[in-house]
Amino acid sequence: MEAAATKASKPATPRDPHVAVLAIPPPLSPAAKMLL
């Protein structure tokens, strides 16, 4: 799961995965928060 989140964050912010998580659409944000 974390690998998938990292891949999705790479196009947005390769240097800041956490920031990319914030950029994830609302429906996916709760799941992303659970990964963190």
TrEMBL record:
Residues 1-21 are annotated as: Disordered. Residues 1-12 have a biased composition (Low complexity). It comes from the Bacteria. This is Uncharacterized protein. It comes from Paramagnetospirillum magneticum (strain ATCC 700264 / AMB-1).
